[in-house]
Amino acid sequence: DRGPGTGLPLAASASGSGGTARAIRKADPEAFVLSGGMYRPHTAPGRRYLAAVLEVPGVFDAIDGVSLHCYSDLNNLDALERTLDTARALAPGKAIWITEVGVAAEGRKPGVDGGWQAAMVAAIYGAALAGGADRGFWHALVDPPQSAPQMPFSTHSLTRTTAAGDRETKPAGQVYRRLASHLAEVPLDTMHEVGADG
Question: CA 89 from chain center: how many Å?
Fold first, then answer.
């Protein structure tokens, strides 16, 4: 959420990005170059920051796609939809990669549990693909051990570490695995949103 006037040297970052993209393409002409991951582009500060980065001369042309991070603990897809709207508005014609997305399996809000997280995995990926995202990456794979200090993203993962130290797939991980197998052969441009009650 840091942007112009907050001490982040956009010009230095941008000149490095353009040079980095050229070096990458020189080493591998087929390389796909993403922007740095942009946190919370669904918020006003995040949108302003992404706009400022893309307006720096050379940045827009240096990248093939935008890398966006989107988290929410709400029982809706508003944050994801605003993230996609921001990307389409500010980076027309560029690929949209949601390089970090996640929701908790446990939390202070009512209804946030393993079943809710599993349902949100399906909803998030369906909405992301139907909304024009080219890729989506879940954050993260494994919860920290139960003995570790619990952090804000501690239960976002698809698996957990049991008290015995074993890994156990959460319901969200099972849904993710099924989605991946079903979508492996589906052309992404055929995805579209279908309304459903509940």
Answer: 17
Could you give the CA distance from residue 180 to residue 37 in angstroms, rounded to a whole number? 23
Pairing of strands 95-102, 38-39: unpaired
pLDDT in tens, 70-122: 998 888 999 999 999 999 999 999 999 999 999 999 887 888 999 999 999 99
Three-state SS for the chain is CCCCCCCCCHHHHHHHHHHHHHHHHHHCCCCCCECCCEECCCCHHHHHHHHHHHHCCCHHHHCCEEEEEEECCCCCCHHHHHHHHHHHHHCCCCEEEEEEEECCCCCCCCCCCHHHHHHHHHHHHHHHHHCCCCEEEECCCECCCCCCCCCCCCCCCCEEECCCCCEEECHHHHHHHHHHHHHCCCCHHHCCCCCCCC
Contact 188, 171 (CB under 8 A): no
pTM of the predicted model as reported, rounded to 2 decimal places: 0.82
d(CA 156, CA 111): 15
φ, ψ of residue 42 in degrees (nearest 5) = -80, -10
Q: Which two three-digit tokens encode residue 79?
A: 């944050």
Distance CA 68, CA 92 (A): 14
Helix axes 44-55, 10-27, angle to 10 degrees: 60
Best CA proximity match to 1, nearest among 59, 36, 50: 50
